[in-house]
Design a protein that fits this description.
Layout lengths: L4 E2 L6 E3 L3 H17 L3 E5 L5 H15 L3 H4 L10 E4 L13 E6 L18 H27 L5 H5 L10 E7 L13 E6 L5 E6 L6 E4 L13 E4 L7 E5 L1 H6 L8 E5 L12 E7 L7 E2 L9 E2 H22 L15
Helix pairs in contact: 1-4, 2-4
The structure holds 2-oxoglutaric acid and fe (ii) ion.
The site of 2-oxoglutaric acid (AKG) has 12 residues, from β6, β8, β12 and β13.
Length: 340
Amino acid sequence: MAPTKYTNRTIPKISLLDFGTRISEITAQLIQAAETDGFFGLVDHGISSKEIEHMFENSSRFFSLPDSTKSTVPFSHLNAGWEKNAQVRPSTGMPDRKESYQMQFGSNMAGCWLPESTLPGFKDAALEFMKKAQSVSEKLMLCFARGLGFEDEYFIKAHDVSRAESQTVLRLLHYFEVDSTVPVPEGYYRAGAHVDWDFVTLLFQRPGQSGLEICPGREASTSFGIGDSWTRVEPKEGEIVCNIGDLLMSWSDDRFKSTFHRVKTPSVVGEDYFGPRYSMAYFNQPCTDAVIQGPLKKYEAVTGREFTQKAMNRNFAALKAKKEALEGVMDGAAVAVSSS
Ligand SMILES: O=C(O)CCC(=O)C(=O)O
Ligand SMILES: [Fe+2]
């Protein structure tokens, strides 16, 4: 693979400790991070390392089931369910080397949960963890609302997970172990470079299972950050890595930056991590009927449903262009387009 240029950048670390009394200070830090890097690490957020690890154990339980069982809850056009080697990124034109399982709170999950007898306790544990991730997300939403001059509850209402219109997703990810003796073909990524389409993503990683890389800022970026200088983000126990998605970028009239990121396929022995990588991404998606427009009205108002549809269409168009450029390489590959 062509060598990547790396730069050491410090990603802002933001503590949510004493949220009620420190809210102004936290808001200022979040706005600063959102305007510059588009990425930040959250600590003292109220989800313990034990709770995160417990959800990772549930994730491993799910992924260690046979494919024939997981395939009974396949990925659906409602952005829920299981896929394997099927998410093709426009940046690479190749399927990510991974499997993932997406869960939502409401009826979009109909037929996408495994029976209790197959995976006892899993659904309850997942929903409980999702509620915790939601409560952290709502703190961020309150601060972003204040920073943009909206009323405090504005974004929280637009992402109400108790409503049937909710589209918010927890994605469990499993990247397969890589054989260090086999050279990595050009263009292979565990997850190809992309931006997320959501409001803000909360990413949970397991210490030691590295590979996440980010390319901060947006204006100066080349297409998908290829050729730009990247920064590795090492997983730290208890820390949630957050990134601004396209939705918040648009809802802030481009004041906040949605940022390219990817997961490298390990290739350098002694430097990269070749073992399996598990991560979990909580994508804050707008309710289908939420109306999205920034305070400066830079973009036309759209609903949450239209925003998601447009993002999917853009992704499909970019993918089609990439496929045509790579004619033949992609024949027969199934395509899953989802939250990122
Ligand atoms: O696994 C990771 O660290 C990144 C996952 C990601 O960016 C995504 O699924 O959108
Ligand atoms: Fe992502």
